[in-house]
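Sample entry (203 residues):
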Amino acid sequence: MKKLMLLAAVAVFTFSANAQDESTNQTTKGTWFFGADAGITFASNKTIPEFDGEDFGTEITVTSFSFTPSANYFVIDNLAVGLDLIFSSSNSKVDFDGDTEEDKTNTFAVIPNATYFFSEGNVRPYLGAGVGFMSTGGDGDFTKFSGLAINANGGVAYFLNSSVAINIGVEYLYANLSNKEENDFKNKSNTLGVGAGFSFFLK
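Predicted structure, serialized as tokens:
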């Protein structure tokens, strides 16, 4: 029994050491990693306004979809440069006394970025930042805005093995957009979010 326990302990130690060695090699120069914040989300929300317990006879349905892939390349050990893409679509439908009105908004952004990984081993803190272009709006030019987008993020990557890591972090996105028809009409936004995702590393 003692020999069996000793062999099990050695096996666990060896596996952990190998996993740590493999993970530390994944942020070296020449490695690609994809999807630090990548994910697909879909949400639908229906709202029925009431006042003093009385239904207005109105239903508001909002459906949204977003896809945010990223691709990055380590130019030196621990420092990767890459590109974040943001695609999102939101559709609002208002039903009032049999009449229906719909409003659709699409958002697209291209943000070059840089990400730096700290420490060694399976748990790696990281910081990233980027500056790029964002556009958003519906069918009419008066609803369309475009301009500067800045993002910053930080968190911790936990390497499950040499190719896959789980990321938990905070991301901030600032946008300063101008209207397509009237440049003096600005739309500024600040977004702060907390989330988790996966990263895939390829040598």
